Amino acid sequence: MRPDDPFDDAVTARAVIAADGTLARWSEGARLLLGHRPDEVVGRPAAELLADSAGPLPLPADRWSGTLVLRHRDGGTVSVWVLAHHRQPSGDGPGEWLAVTPLEATDYDLPDDPLVRKAVFQSPCATMVFDQELRLRGVNDAMARLLGLPADHLRGLRPTDIGGRPQHSELERQLRHVLRSGRPHDMQTHMKARAESYAHAWLARLAPLTDRSGRVRGVCVTAHDFTEQFRARERLQLVNEASMRIGTTLDVTRTAQELADVCVPSLADFVSVELLDPEEGAGEASGRLSPPVSLRRVAQQSMTAGAPESVAQVGEVVVYPENSPQADSLAAGHSIVASVQAGDLDPWLAVDETRARRIEEYGVHSMLSVPLQARGTTLGVAAFVRFSHPEAFTHDDVLLAEEVTARAAVCIDNARRYSRERETTLTLQRSLLPRTLPRTAALEAATRYLPAARSGVGGDWFDVIPLSGMRVAMVVGDVVGHGIQASATMGRLRTAVRTLADIDLAPDELLTHLDDLVLHLSEEAGGDSGPGEVGATCLYAVYDPVSRRCTLSRAGHPPPVVIPPGGPAQHLELPSGPPLGLGGLPFESAEFELSDDSVLAFYTDGLVTSRGRDVDQGEALLREALSGAAGPLDETCDRVLNSVLAPGGATDDVALLLARLRGLPSSQVTTWDIPADPALVAPIRKQVLDQLAAWSLTDASFTAELVVSELVTNAIRYGAPPIRLRLIHDAATLICEVSDTSHTAPHLRRAKTWDEGGRGLLLVAQLTQRWGTRHTAEGKTIWAELALADME
């Protein structure tokens, strides 16, 4: 029954009472029961209907039922059972209404009624019968206990008269459907029994009742309590949801937040996750913790806008003293349930007035604290709080919370282990990469390295290596795989490249030696698995600022991009060599003449590859971002990363090296052809001194004269013509080079006491910053560098 139903019902006495206590509406059934016409009682105080007018008429805050003695129009009294409801008035309309059933037997007490006779009222299942008008014709004791009303007082009521809840409106709709169709129907509903604090789950079976002619005369409703099955299904669903939603990433904070999100509101009204703070060296504990315990809140979720359990916010450190659920559960090593009503929290709240005030404000009545434990270590604690849920945490709730928390703890531990390994690998990677780039006259360089957003640190590297004769080597490489192993392999390859570059190998020869090294590393790492266990790609380039020519060779690596001054960016066409580690295949070099201020861009494939696009699209974006790279190289690096990388970050680690080339002016280079005559060494020394004076480098004249004399004399004595002397200088260095066509290389040795020779190269090594031999296709070049700053 609804309060706004039309009052033409001649059976059930119904009335609506206004907010001021006067009768606002009066049904025909009420007139038949008490004898009062509507015009005699509407507008008058409802309390006048009481036989004892001194007593108040019960106007419920929500719902009230009981017996009253009402006054009949003829002066007599009528004992009735009253079902009273309150509804929020809209505007100035009435607020309360009453449904009245006489206690005496009426026409609805029909023990011989075939509808009642067909119902099995002795069944332990809750059963009730409705007629064609959807009036209740009978209930058994089990249904009466479920509804919390006397069985004799329910007859004649409609589904909505029983409680006015939404599920009863749905029941009425389904009853009408069964009456029309004549087919049974099952429906699920949730009702809270009057004596229970939690709602039961019921399966209601609606079966049509027919007479002998097959006509549907009513509906029998049988309710089966499947609360335990329903709750078991809910628990299983929560565990399944937790397994899918918790641990989607290897991020500690996000994993903890996923735990809180899953459990609200299914298990608790507020959940907080707090971990031992790794910043204080207590990221985990192998045993139980003694209070007080300092924890950092990393996640929380609430049904309300605030956090009712405490005043702490995410990111803050909270100190839990003794007698707090969090500290006690960590000390005990198991879950603890605390009840506010039982006073379990009184010692804790007595020392924290703010927390006590928040708990009272939100009506918190129960707390559950579960330690986060994984692989024998304690990571922190998860606190579950209830204030909207009417029932306290049960034993099943504790088991469910422990199951979900255990899954989350493993995920958090995995995330922490991954974070530590990633940080270790990243530290190793950064230590193996050059911290600063050398400053040379040949080029200006800028670099960037980005680890992958998901797969972690890999084996990408870059380097800039000064060579003899003002030349500079540039290298970019990429080791297959990720993690510490890839970083360690990268470090070994970078060291090998620097060693091979120091002996001035040509780019293709250097890659051949590097390929052999990768094969050896693969054999060490793979054992019986054969070659290919370790793989890498590499691009090696040597730029000569004197000739302005750049020689490059690559091993399975993307070709570089060149940006001429004022011109568009374009890829250099290089022979595509095989990746390192395959063995047996040759590498080729290509040489290009590049103008001053040209920019070379070296990169690894992580920059241009992603899941959402192909390599060609990435390379097109790279060329577009590099076009017009006339500004500072650092700004160009940032623009390239922002333009080319996908919004979600790189799927592989990225290394980027930009180099702006600077040619050496011809005025800073002088070359002489030397006749193979020892008598002409003195005039050569004189020409060198004159050139140094022209360059204003007289401070270096003495040392340079000795070095030139020794190198030229050795070339005349032990080399093969033609012989050539070249002097190169910039602001910081003077280089002396003597070339001949012999392939025999001099070796530094210690001369004995009575030896007349053998001290020349030792003298050169002592007087210069460094020296060495560079082999060429025509022969060799012996060079020596003098630091001009040391000559001042």
From TrEMBL:
Domain PAS: 16-44
Keyword Ribonucleoprotein tagged: no
Top-level taxon: Bacteria
N-terminal signal peptide: none
Gene3D superfamilies hit by this protein: 3.30.450.40, Histidine kinase-like ATPase, C-terminal domain, PAS domain, PPM-type phosphatase domain
Entry keyword set: Hydrolase
UniProt-listed PROSITE patterns: PAC (PS50113), PAS (PS50112)
InterPro entries: Bact_Sigma-Reg (IPR052016), GAF (IPR003018), GAF-like_dom_sf (IPR029016), HATPase_C_sf (IPR036890), HATPase_dom (IPR003594), PAS (IPR000014), PAS-assoc_C (IPR000700), PAS-like_dom_sf (IPR035965)
Pfam families assigned to the protein according to its UniProt record, in alphabetical order: GAF (PF01590), HATPase_c_2 (PF13581), PAS_4 (PF08448), SpoIIE (PF07228)
Residue span(s) of domain PAC: 185-238
UniProt-recorded name of the protein: SpoIIE family protein phosphatase
